[in-house]
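Human: Here is a favour to ask of a fellow structure person. Comparing notes only helps if you start from a blank page. I am asking you to supply a protein in sequence and structure-token form. Write it directly below this note and I will take it from there.

Assistant:
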Amino acid sequence: MAKRAFLLAVVLSAWVGVVASAPAQDWPRFRGPGGLGLGDAPNVPATWSEQDYNWKVAVPGVGHSSPVVVGKRIYLTTGDTQTARRTVLCLDTADGKTLWKREWDSSPFRQHSDNSFASATPAADEHGVVALFGSPSRMLLVALDTEGKDMWSLDLGAYVGMHGSGSSPVIVGDVVVLANEQEDPGALPTVYRGEAAKQPAGVSFLIGLDRKSGKERWRIARKSDQAPYTTPCEFRAPGGPLTLVFSSTAHGLTAVDPAAGKIVWEVGKLFKDRCCASPSAGAGLVIAGDGLGSRGTHQMAVRPTADGATVAYEIKKPTPQVPSPLIVGDLLFLWNDDGWVACYKTATGEQIWREKVGGAFYGSPVCTGKRIYCISRKGEVAVIAAADKYELLGRVSLGEPSYTTPAIAGGRMYLRGRGHLFSLGK
């Protein structure tokens, strides 16, 4: 792709120790290549009007999952709010027209008001798409080819979790990886327990599946605690293998070799509250946090080496609970749920600035063209400079709520609201 100069000059340092599993022009999973939130679309504007969209198309149902893009195909999931019927949609990047859709019947179930029947972001590659649909009765993982035909499906069994499921699958090479980490109701904070504390704990595990057949390659048993809603990021320590790094209350940070299904390192006892924000990596560090009640508890920076991993520093609250950390070279950005944003030195955790953007956020920030974009729960896209000085560059409303994270691919940005998908950028 021609427009790589910015990534090579500015963002490359953020990828030290990280190997992404897809080309920069694609956005194949939650938070894009490697789960880093870094994209290559410098011509996406900081402010815009309705006329600037390439297209805007209606999306049926509701889904808090984010779009993923591979080549000329956009994949996203949605669920009917009345029947809980789940859908995978494939759209054309050129005009947003639906190329195909697949549906699965389900039954409505009680869930948190901030969850949806399609909250897990799908993962995609040149072979097609893998989507996860969770419910208390079963966790259904489906793989479809680029034309929407069945490749395989897998029922992972029942799911125990007070707020429902939220982790997303990822594809690394020829392996599909999923964190099926569940709740031990007895481990919940006292204020949340009630009758739920009498329920047995769910069975937790990490699993790796053959990309083409769906056959199990490996499984790692996990302890159940407060169920995490995180999706792993990629990291490679100098001299070490490519790893996926998972965050959870039960285990802290765990790096797994996705090809072999082996734990490479683990730093436990890092988090006391629920892990909602996905970990991120850059500058030789992995950064992740926990939180309670829309407030972060803290963010922990861990430095992996070929011999293991150690804690580099801690950033104490106020920190985000749901939005994931964003590393842009030597700068770390933490976008809090309540609209406060802070910038730190990635290497040391020293705070450079902290400012109030305003709004309430569940989506995670992404960066392209020296700008950071994040969508508020009301559907307002806030844009700030990815710099050591705070600058609010733009604030544009989608006209509808959004709990999602933007996707960046092919020089464009894709923004999902409650009822529409928008394409922006030339």
